[in-house]
Amino acid sequence: MGLFNRKSASASASVSTAVAGGTAVESGSSLSHLTGDYVIDSTHSEIGFSLKYAKVTTMRGRFTEYDGRLRLDGSTPSASTAEVVIKVASIDTALAGRDEHLLNGDFFAVEEFPEMTYRSTSAERVDEDTFRMNGDLTIKGVSRPVALELTLNGEVVDPMGNVRVGFDGSATISRSDWGLTYNAALEGGGVLISDKVKLTFDISAIREA
Fold first, then answer.
1. pLDDT tens-digit profile of 94-153?
2. Percent helix, percent strand, percent coil in the chain, to nearest 5
3. Does the first or last residue of the chain, that is N or C, have fewer Cβ atoms within 10 Å of its Cβ?
4. How many CB atoms sit inside 10 A of residue 84's CB?
5. Against a cut of 0.90, is the pTM above it?
6. Nearest-CA neighbor of 154 among 142, 164, 140?
């Protein structure tokens, strides 16, 4: 998976990332030092989405409450796993009325289905800089496979002494595959909301002691 994305040793003897007040953790071709269990720090992460609205603009939103755990295997990245549980009611599109509509039966039916989940099933290396995590995304009781493209941003020891890894990624899905089919016709043709939705992840995770 992209948590273990690194240039080859011939390209660079070591790669490091620093944050304000933190200490960079150097890493070369070996990533075995990253092996361990991690929890996602939701205060320094974002799980978002975007889609076309009225054909000409992009609507963006995010979920603000979620729990996530990672098991990283630096020696065998394909053995890494991930699980994320998202509270659907935490959806935020910066418009209260729209958020309320998204939570009702036209979309997420939050009273019946308060959570959506992603659980990995496998991980694979695509090329030198890209990894793919395969897993099942469950929304409204429907589970379908989704592949996430992920890239490691780096790892640091933060001012509190926590070892952190940071990565980002994305996936594009069809919301209708999960029964999210509500729409409205536009004058002149087309529909109000696109079926394609881009999911984005900007994640900071802390290694457990």
1. 999 999 999 999 999 999 999 999 999 999 877 655 678 999 999 999 999 999 998 888
2. 15, 50, 40
3. C
4. 21
5. no
6. 164
